[in-house]
Amino acid sequence: MHHFQYRNGELHAEDVPVRELASRYGTPLYVYSAATLRRHFQAFDSAFTGVGHLTCYSVKANSNVHLLRLLAEMGAGMDIVSGGEMHRALAAGVPGQRIVYSGVGKQDDEIRAALEADILLFNAESVQELERINALAGQMGRTARIGVRINPDVDPKTHPYISTGMRNNKFGLDMEQARAAYLLARDLPNVQPVGIDCHIGSQLTTLAPFLEALDRVLDFHERLRDLGLAITHLDLGGGLGITYGEETPPHPKEFGEAVSERLRGRGLSLILEPGRVIAGNAGILVGRVIYTKSTPSKNFIIADAAMNDLVRPSLYQSYHRIAEVQPAGRDEITADVVGPICESGDFLARDRILPGMQQGDLLAVFSAGAYGFSMSSNYNSRPRAAEVLVDGASARCIRKRETLADLVAPELHAEE
Ligand SMILES: *Cc1c(COP(=O)(O)O)cnc(C)c1O
């Protein structure tokens, strides 16, 4: 459920006509719905009320500081994968005690900053990283709470680029190596092994892979207990999928019930890291048709929104619903919706049946709230889009459109 619906013949974001936002802020434009974000967070978080848990929103899905603040005010923690994301989380007012940090390549300055912030948990992904965290914590006179990220070798049945818990992926350690890492951690003076972690992938549309991974991790947890390790936190990562088109992912409630049931009586506090399921359907990308053209083999709708704004179709061949902001009742055609970028891979949709849009029409690309703006770039020297947050009848700009001066400033001032 989301709050981008048609009323009086045109698309609204909550109570605001998208047409008005496009004329006020220009296009391409990301529009988010505060009510949808709140609703998604609430639905997810309340699915786990039966167990002690912390829902750590995955910052990389959409890192805008205003969205982080909105979620933090609802009690969300944050799942980060870089020092930059920690900087954003702290700027949004998230206490260190509600931050968990994953990623295979944590660097010294990032680890130091996280120790400084006294974060809840480092999810270590290699023995070298564990040793590095221990050394830096020692220098700073601190103790780092750590977990080891387990690679449970489970196929999440999603796109290969967003599968992270299979044997050949770079993430985590297999059970045997993880066991050795915990034994090392037990002996290191400046780390305290309190967590166990896994994250097997993104856009999962069935429960089975989650539960298979969880069962393996829980077995492993018992082995750790036998070694005398006192693990208090189980981090199950993120990955719950959303509906872009025809997918029917499990409802968070179903996910929450299945997970809570397996955790009962184990004395483990649960950490969850949802990203896409919170932000994905809480945002749309609004573009305007610049030109249309029909070649002997294809119809093209050329929009001012491109792969630099939303790379998911190009990178993952993903489907995003596209529709007119003001449906005009024109006959349908089969068309590619493309952007101005000089790459044949620059498309938002291919061979899509759509109303025959015309020059100047506004179009909405749905389900663009996660891995949309956060993956955007300046490719082809295109300034990045503006972002607007709608809450009821009010709208405010939460990131201004980049200017041409912004594009060249770091080059013109490279010596500073
Ligand atoms: C990307 C990521 C997530 C969030 O995944 P979603 O599919 O957006 O829920 C959670 N944890 C880690 C470690 C990640 O890398």
UniProtKB/TrEMBL annotation:
Reactions that this protein is recorded to catalyse: meso-2,6-diaminopimelate + H(+) = L-lysine + CO2
Pathway(s) served: Amino-acid biosynthesis; L-lysine biosynthesis via DAP pathway; L-lysine from DL-2,6-diaminopimelate: step 1/1
Alphabetical list of Pfam families matching this protein: Orn_Arg_deC_N, Orn_DAP_Arg_deC
Enzyme class: lyase
PROSITE patterns: ODR_DC_2_2
Modified residues (N6-(pyridoxal phosphate)lysine): K60
Cited InterPro entries: Ala_racemase/Decarboxylase_C (IPR009006), DAP_deCOOHase_LysA (IPR002986), De-COase2_C (IPR022643), De-COase2_CS (IPR022657), De-COase2_N (IPR022644), Orn/DAP/Arg_de-COase (IPR000183), PLP-binding_barrel (IPR029066)
EC assignment: 4.1.1.20
Annotated binding of pyridoxal 5'-phosphate, by residue: G239, E273, P274, G275, R276, Y371
Function: Specifically catalyzes the decarboxylation of meso-diaminopimelate (meso-DAP) to L-lysine.
Entry's family note: Belongs to the Orn/Lys/Arg decarboxylase class-II family. LysA subfamily.
Protein name: Diaminopimelate decarboxylase
Species this protein is from: Nitratidesulfovibrio liaohensis
